[in-house]
Amino acid sequence: MEKQLKSVVATSSDYEKVFNTLLDTAKWLNKKGSDQWGDLLLGKDVHRTDRAIQNQNVYMAYSKENYLGVFILLETQSSWDAELWGKDSGIHITYLHRVALAEEAHGSGNGELLLRVAMNRAVKNDNRVIRLDCIADNHYLNQFYKNAGFVLVETDKEVRSNSQSKFNLYEKAF
Q1: I need a surface site. Which of 7, 71, 131, 159 has the fewest CB within 10 A?
Q2: Cβ atoms within 10 A of the Cβ of 51, count?
Q3: How confident is the model over 22-40, as pLDDT tens digits?
Q4: For the whole model, what pTM was predicted?
Q5: What string of DSSP letters covers the chain?
Q6: Are the beta carbons of 61 and 6 closer than 8 angstroms?
Q7: Burial of 7 by CB count in 10 Å (0-12 exposed, 13-18 middle, 19+ buried)?
Q8: Is the dihedral of CA 26, 149, 125, 128 positive or negative?
Q9: Residue 163, pLDDT score
Q10: What b/e string do you get for 24-34 counting C-beta neighbours within 10 Å, with b at 16 or more?
Q11: pLDDT digits over 127-149, tens only?
Q12: How confident is the model at residue 90 (pLDDT cuts 50, 70, 90)?
């Protein structure tokens, strides 16, 4: 039986819960040997999650009444996305960022459920392609996205604004 999945737009009153979910994921990544999202471990939110919440781009995901985690969906290409992907036509493309599973939701396939909620939201918003980037040397997350049906479009993409990492680009059409 399929679990009931839903997402709600985060509000400013949800910021602490959203931030803590991102922080828990940063800690989990750190335990896996990745310094990805290391700014959060220092108490810094360089990606300005508060602004993303104000812009109604942050979603909180649930399976039945159980909190799964958060994700950011951008229906307009950000400067970061344009640097990675090149300028797009803007037609029916969603960019997925900051996928973060709640600490209590780890295991039992909840990561895939969280992705499914994000894809459902993209379809509901009338988009047909979802794109994401992943740090190239994070083998666990790269395999996770491949297992979830995302197609690897480009490997080891270098960007001027982040010379410390290379990125793999994934997309999924539906």
Answers
A1: 159
A2: 11
A3: 999 999 888 888 888 888 9
A4: 0.91
A5: -PPPEEEEE--GGGHHHHHHHHHHHHHHHHHTT--TTHHHHTT--TT-HHHHHHTT-EEEEEETTEEEEEEEEESS--HHHHHHH-----SSEEEEEEEEE-GGG-STTHHHHHHHHHHHHHHHTT--EEEEEEETT-HHHHHHHHHTTPEEEEEEEEETTEEEEEEEEEEEE-
A6: yes
A7: buried
A8: positive
A9: 65
A10: bbbeebeeeeb
A11: 889 999 999 988 888 999 999 99
A12: low
Query: Could you tell me the two tokens for 77?
Result: 């290409």
Extract the tokens encoding 101.
Answer: 């599973």
Residue listed under structure tokens 């010379």: 163
How many Å separate Cα 42 from the centre of its chain? 20
Measured in residues, the chain has a length of 174
Find where tokens 């993209």 sit.
122
Q: Extract the tokens encoding 143.
A: 């395999």
